[in-house]
Amino acid sequence: MKRSFLFLFTVLTGQTIFAQESTIIPYPAETVAGVGHFTLTANTRITHPARLNNEAKYLQQLLKEEHQLSLQVAKPQSSKSNAGNIQLELNTAAGATQNSEAYALSVTNSNIKVTGNSAAGVFYGIQSLRQLIKNGQIPCVTINDAPAFKWRAFMLDEGRYFKGENEVKQIFDQMALLKMNVFHWHLTDDGGWRVEIKKYPELTRIGSKRRMSETGTWLSNVFDSIPHEGFYTQEQIKGLVKYAADRHITIIPEIEMPGHASAAIASYPWLGTENKPIEVPISFGIKKDIFNVANPKVKAFLHDVLDEVMKLFPSNIVHIGGDEVIYDQWKASGEVAQYMKENHIKTPADLQIDFTNGISRYLEQKGHRMIGWNDILGGLHGNNDSTDASTKDKLSQNTIIQFWTGNPEIVTQAVMKGHDVVNAYWDNTYLDYDYKHTPLSKAYRFNPIPASLPADQRHKILGIGTQMWGEWIPTVERMNYLIYPRVAAMAEVAWTKQEQKNFERFTKSLDSYLVPSWKKMGISIKPEQLNDPVQ
User: Fold this and answer.
1) 10 Å Cβ neighbour count for 387?
2) Which of 145, 164, 187 is the last residue of a domain?
3) pLDDT of 125 higher than 70
4) DSSP characters for 169-229?
5) What is the Cα 160 distance to its own chain's centre?
6) Which of 51, 60, 113, 306 could disulfide-link 106, Cβ–Cβ 3.0 to 4.6 Å?
7) Which one, of 152, 394, 157, 345, lies nearest residue 256 by Cα?
8) Within this chain, do residues 136 and 155 fall inside the same structural domain, yes or no?
9) What are phi and psi of 386, to 5 degrees?
10) Are residues 52 and 189 in the same domain?
11) In the beta sheet, which residues pair with residue 46?
């Protein structure tokens, strides 16, 4: 009896010690510290089954870049031959598919074993392992881990400012390190169209360029006189899709409709409700120009665009935006009025739902699913009067709702209507806001599950969105200043169970691996990025 108690005390004490000293971000679900350490040497080998070839090569390259170790990759060995090795394995036990991203990491004095319920799980185990390495040594530990949410997203808005392949790859690398698995790519907006559509070349010939850009802040009416342009060819996108997939990141493209459409309308004026030439806007903010959803030719255009987009991105989910639609042009259009009369549509908000449901049906016919900002539930935005915004029609239940604004009760209402929800509430998750508005602690304490949501419906919260809107980030330096370290806080919100979060532990952990790693990339973290502002 005494020996059993001593063993239990040792295990519990070890668990407490590791909880205090752990530097892994996002924080693992279960950890038990061991005694001693494993030392990486030039003789250490990485063994793996054929299905984990990508993960083995990734780890091999990682150790070479970060620790100057050139390790051999080999097929699995007999159990007697595993001393000194890093073993990558797939869990074949019954029930292993219940959480495909779960993993176990075991470090002993003699070997390291990373076991995942899938290749993604093994990959996440590798991310935890890399954060434990100090001077070629890894402390002995046992970790069992799995994410709290399956949708752990980072959004980059390139509709406003084009950043390019290298910057996007760097974001993918940091997402991988932080176990984030969805890259929400905002590719079209009023300020620019950034994806090549072969059937409509004017979208990039004209729509990807603007003659100057507004600077400062909203409605500043100050401009930089610097032309801005850029877009991704389809070949470039294919390369980035593979780069992301190798890191178990799914890319969700966003093609804005029916609003935020100025760049498209500047390219093809017949797309607009007014059917008049416009330029790609040089100022930011909500624009009045919207697609003419009463015109069958416009709907055909959008279907054509979606066809090319669906071929580029294998995610089977397409984001259609749908936010901040100003109804004035629809209200002034005789063609739209006739369409609404013929189809028994009472309000502009119902017209938007009618249009959105049509896009949803089209995507479903192609084996895809639609996601949109929560405006698509009915005319939410305050620039429309209450009569225009009232709705009777219902949005397709298959649509995923990305909640960004309004009363958080909207999340519960959307779930109770049958929708899956991604919680991206602006006040906590918009990284374009400065550190006075959203200090690190505020980002960290975000809870994606509303208190009002019944426990048996909480699985409908797929996860979180982390947004990097681009209006006021013309440079990569400014973008990185706003992203890091808050993206790490959002990663822990998405991965770590709410009851296991600890802000003091999190901030201490930043200094162990992430902050030095970012510094090597040329990203230095300043005090105001870590500390709450003085009130």
Assistant:
1) 11
2) 145
3) yes
4) HHHHHHHHHTT--EEEEE-EETTEE-B--TT-THHHHTTTEES--B-SSTT---B----EE
5) 18
6) 113
7) 157
8) no
9) -65, -30
10) no
11) 73, 86
In-domain check, residue 535: no
Is 43 contained in some domain? yes
Q: What is the DSSP letter of 232?
A: B
| pLDDT one-digit tens code per residue, 46-97 | 999 999 999 999 999 999 999 999 999 998 876 556 778 999 999 988 666 6
What are the structure tokens assigned to 57, written together?
């090569």
Contact 481, 529 (CB under 8 A): yes
End of a domain among 86, 121, 145?
145
Structural domain boundaries enclosing 346: 151-530
Quickly tell me which residue has 């406003």 as its tokens.
Answer: 160
The encoded tokens of residue 277 equal 């030439």
How many domains does the chain contain in total?
2
Q: Are residues 172 and 138 in the same domain?
A: no
Active site residue 324: yes
- Range list of H helices, 272-423: 296-312, 328-332, 334-342, 348-365, 386-389, 409-416
Asked if residue 353 and residue 250 are part of one domain, the reply reads yes
pLDDT for the residue numbered 81: 67
Q: Is the pLDDT score of 183 beyond 50? A: yes
Q: Which candidate in 214, 254, 256, 324 is catalytic?
A: 324
Place of tokens 């915004």: 389
Same domain flag for 104 and 192: no
Does some domain include residue 469? yes
Q: What is the CATH number of the domain that holds 24?
A: 3.30.379.10
| Structure token pair of residue 480 | 């990185």
Question: What tokens does 401 get?
Answer: 């709702």
The count of residues in the chain is 535
186 and 114 co-located in one domain: no
pLDDT digits (tens, 9 = 90+) for 199-248: 999 999 999 999 999 998 888 899 999 999 999 999 999 999 999 999 99
Q: What is the CATH number of the domain that holds 412?
A: 3.20.20.80
Q: Tell me phi and psi for residue 522, to 5 degrees.
A: 90, 15
Residue 517, in any domain of the structure: yes
Please tell me the predicted confidence (pLDDT) of residue 273.
98
Instruction: Name all contacts of 10-15 with Cβ < 8 Å and 24+ positions apart.
Output: none
The alpha carbon torsion through 5, 10, 11, 15 (nearest 10 deg) reads 140
Residue 329: count of CB within 10 angstroms of its CB: 19
Instruction: List, for residues 395-405, the tens digit of each pLDDT value.
Output: 999 999 999 99
C-beta separation of 233 from 167 below 8 A: no
Specify the DSSP element, H or E, that contains 138: strand 137-145
What beta strand segments (E) does 83-136 contain?
A: 86-90, 103-107, 112-116
Contact 103, 145 (CB under 8 A): yes
Any idea which residue has 């005694």 for tokens? 35
| Reduced DSSP (H G I as helix, E B as strand, rest coil) percent helix, strand, coil of the chain, to 5 | 40, 20, 40
Residue 15: pLDDT band (50, 70, 90) is very low
Residue 318 shares a structural domain with residue 414: yes
348 and 486 part of one domain:
yes
Rounded to a whole number of angstroms, the CA Rg of the chain reads 25
